[in-house]
Amino acid sequence: MLAEEVYSRLRLALMRAELLPHQRLKTRDLARSMGTSETPVREALLQLARDGAIEIKPRFYIRVRRLSLADYKDIRDIRLELEPMAAERAMSNMRGGDLERLEAFHRALVDAERRRDWATALEANRAFHFTMFEHAAMPALLQVLERLWLRVGPMLSELYPDALPHYPDGHQHEAILRALKNREAYALRMAVRLDLIEGGRNLLRRLADMEASPSRMDAVPRISPPPVALGVTDAS
Length: 236
Prior knowledge:
Number of domains: 2
Radius of gyration: 18 Å
Largest sheet: 2 strands, antiparallel
CATH architecture of the largest domain: Up-down Bundle
Strand content: under 5%
CATH superfamily of the largest domain: GntR ligand-binding domain-like
CATH class of the largest domain: Mainly Alpha
Oligomer: single chain
CATH topology of the largest domain: Four Helix Bundle (Hemerythrin (Met), subunit A)
Number of strands: 2
Distance between the termini: 32 Å
Structural class: mainly alpha
């Protein structure tokens, strides 16, 4: 169905942090940019509202939801349980070529951060994790993780440059890759958990600071949205 295609495109944009917290969406503009009528766009937006990713206030706005710090922590706690499981299940299904793809995504992430290309860094990180999760061959688990990521994705735009991930003992993606190569399940689960904890520590601090200063909540993000690609209006 056409609505499912529109939903998939918007869902991916949310997961990539291409759509930002409190960014307003216009059905007409989305339909025009996607070359479709407004009906499938409305259906897709209603599904995203049911997913908890956007907010719809009839006759006022349709906008990307901004999670509270408590909401973000709740989702992170769920991810801390489910993502190590997905990684461990994926381990036995990954071969040399699959690991090479993960290594390439990690190199792309590191290079993008060095060049301060934040949008590319976010997408490389998403691709690294979901390439691994897909190899778990657990469609239900993958669907749950996708829905969690589409809710937190817009908040990840706050990572750069003010909450840049920091890893005291080396990037946890490298620990994940070592564990996958060596077929070390416990080390893999720990590396995935530490990637979330260490990589997101500065983000938690930034979100807490923003929540303590409401005037900063609607500040213009450092990562600009792509209005041409998705037909999305500015958040102002």
